[in-house]
Task: structure prediction
Amino acid sequence: MNTLASTFQCLNDLSAGSVIREYAVAGATAAMFYMEAVRTYNLDVFVMLPPQTGSILSMEPLYSELKRSGYSFDAEHVIINGVPVQFIPSYCTLSDEAMKHTMLLDYDGVSVPVLKPEYLVALWIDAGGAKRIQRARDLASSESVHGVMLDEILDRFGLEIR
Amino acid sequence: MSVDEKHEAVEEAARIFAAKEEWHRKQAALPIKEKMRIMLELQKQDYPFLKARGVLRSWEKPWDCEA
Result:
């Protein structure tokens, strides 16, 4: 039977190779390391890609590697050991900074780089949408979030929790 | 409602809200593996309802894994 730990291990193996420089668990799955369980249907993974020659960012080397490794694709997801994983290239200065400040957390013996809760809140506010804003509020009110750090990040990126 | 009854109702509501908050705090403090187990269970519970609504996206089904 597949396990979540084996999915995280696969991501670690990928980041040890050449197709991604680093990764970090994001979204609701990341939030669950800090707050109570929530429903989610995919595992969001932020990735930093190695420098590329073309002017357009391509996920092709990563997808080709995953295809070669035998993983199947479903819409915009790659099914890794039973888990639909959505790879999201770091897309802005906020996500770049978030990826530089990940926490290495243990999941059943596997070290998993997870975005810090303060950055998760900021990224959700930045992305917008009712569900994300609600989750940002829930996470911001949890004991895991450092209020001063969160305020500093929100301030610097011109964001606020409404 | 008398002043005393209103005061009691306010206290009772405060007690209920505090108890709920404590429950959520305990849920958040569960080990991560236990929280993932809960999330996988929520996916299984949702599945028949999502399927019945006919709006199921191809990947929108319980993860084929254990916590």
Notes: Residues 45 and 62 of chain B are 9 Å apart (CA to CA). Chain B has a mean pLDDT of 92. Chain B is about 70% helix and 0% strand. The two ends of chain B are 51 Å apart (CA to CA).
